[in-house]
Amino acid sequence: MVWLPEYVGTPYLPHVEWVDRKRVLERMAGRARENLDEVAGRMRDRDLRVEVAVAEDAHPADAILRFAQAEEADLVAMGTHGRGGVARTVLGSVADKVVRSSSTPLLLMRAPEES
Questions:
Q1: 58-86 burial, b if ≥16 CB within 10 A, otherwise e?
Q2: Closest to 6 measured CA to CA, from 83, 106, 99, 86
Q3: pLDDT mean over 28-45
Q4: In whole angstroms, what is the distance from residue 40 CA to residue 17 CA?
Q5: How many CA atoms lie within 13 A of 74 on its CB side?
Q6: SS3 for the chain, per residue?
Q7: 7-16, 30-39, 68-77, 84-93: which has the minimum mean pLDDT?
Q8: pLDDT at 75
Q9: I need a labelling partner for 60 at 20 to 30 A (CA). Which of 8, 48, 92, 94 fits?
Q10: What pLDDT is recorded for position 36?
Q11: How far is it, in rounded angstroms, from Cα 6 to Cα 91?
């Protein structure tokens, strides 16, 4: 299991720093590891082999692809935001890039809609 933080800040105004980015990312990574460890524990209880990693990379799809290849993963499971239209054009799609580039089987799940 790999977690990658969403970008903190804006790529269009890189000189504007609203938060201590490093500190925020460290906290996010810590919480992510706790969440991943919890989910991985439940999967291990079902006799599944699970690897957990927290990666920081400017290109999440590339990090996922590298990790899957390096670990010789049997499956890559990913959540998707289900964005379309302009949002998809502007923000891109990590899942799309992984689908197009991965030789590892994929399981994609749409994230629940936020209320």
A1: eebbbbbbebbeeeebeebebeeeeeeee
A2: 83
A3: 90
A4: 35
A5: 4
A6: CEECCCCCCCCCCCCCCCCCHHHHHHHHHHHHHHHHHHHHHHHHCCCCCCCCEECCCCCHHHHHHHHHHHCCCCCEEEEECCCCHHHHHHHCCHHHHHHHHCCCCEEEEECCCCC
A7: 7-16
A8: 92
A9: 48
A10: 87
A11: 11
Judged by average pLDDT, the poorest of 4-18, 36-50, 83-97 is 4-18
Q: Which CATH superfamily is domain 2-110 in?
A: HUPs (3.40.50.620)
CA distances from 93 to 19, 39, 85 (A): 26, 24, 11
Dist CA 2 CA 7 (whole Å): 16
Interatomic CA distance for residues 18 and 73, integer angstroms:
38
More confident residue, 42 or 23: 42
The reported pTM is 0.65
Q: Where are the domains of the chain?
A: 2-110
